[in-house]
TrEMBL record:
It holds the Pfam family UreF. One of its GO terms (molecular function) is nickel cation binding. Keywords: Chaperone, Nickel insertion. Belongs to the UreF family. It comes from Geodia barretti. The lineage of its organism: Eukaryota, Metazoa, Porifera, Demospongiae, Heteroscleromorpha. This is Urease accessory protein UreF. HAMAP family: UreF. InterPro entries: UreF (IPR002639), UreF_sf (IPR038277).
Length: 236
């Protein structure tokens, strides 16, 4: 590895770490309502829920958006970057899900700007940050990470795997607070997700952003129910 490659890897690890303050720890992605309504009872249920959510919703929508956003940023195509952002935002049906994605995206942009400063090779990154701040773009988490990956020199596939890892870790962290789940069980679930994430990541590599799809009705319903719950530990 070269010095630059090492540095890019270290930045990627930092951005994907749960220690990085994106606020994802505050979101259960509907799991809190699933537990409350007895749809999810155990670690096995969490594993199945996460596998389905990643395969049928997160990767085909957020994942496709992230890959195309990273490439659009690399081409300095700010118009396409914003178009991808709005399209992904519109696909998130529950209000809580849209709000969670925007909150995460804005935190990614704010915190990464403090790290990267002006010493980065992606001029569209700063323009996108301005578009988000002025609400010309929603600033979804996946697209924000795609733009940030461009600024940090992180390849598209690496950025996609970072996003999936962070998403899974966030849900598993919520599961540990909602269910009797050990750290070992959470790690085993995370490891079991590597194969489906890798397979689906390869499948969507060249999918255009106009073909984004998302089908997670149980998760969407849980998020909608969560909006009306009287007692909530998580923001989503």
């Amino acid at each position: 590895m070269t010095h630059d490659t090492d540095r890019q890897l270290l930045v990627a690890l930092q951005l994907a770490d749960s220690f990085f303050p994106t606020g994802m720890y505050a979101h259960s992605q509907g799991l809190e309502s699933m537990v409350a309504w007895r749809w999810v009872h155990s670690a096995d249920d969490v594993q199945q829920m996460l596998a389905n959510l990643l395969t049928w919703s997160v990767l085909p929508s957020d994942g496709v958006a992230l890959l195309n956003a990273r490439r659009a940023a690399g081409r300095a195509d700010s118009s396409e970057l914003v178009a991808i952002d709005w399209n992904l935002h519109a696909m998130k049906l529950p209000a809580e899900t849209r709000a969670a994605s925007r909150q995460t995206g804005r935190r990614i942009l704010d915190e990464s700007a403090l790290l990267l400063g002006s010493d980065q090779p992606c001029p569209v990154y700063e323009r996108y940050r301005t578009d988000v701040a002025s609400q010309r773009a929603p600033g979804t988490g996946a697209v924000a990470l795609g733009a940030t990956a461009c600024a940090a020199g992180i390849p598209p596939q690496t950025a996609l795997l970072m996003f999936c890892h962070s998403f899974a870790v966030g849900v598993l962290g919520a599961a540990q607070r909602l269910l009797p789940m050990t750290h070992s069980e959470a790690q085993q679930i995370l490891h079991s997700l590597h194969e489906p994430i890798a397979a689906m990541s390869n499948e969507i590599q060249h999918r255009p952003w106009q073909q984004m799809t998302a089908f997670a009705p149980q998760s969407d319903i849980a998020s909608m129910l969560h909006e009306c719950d009287d007692l909530r530990m998580f923001a989503s």
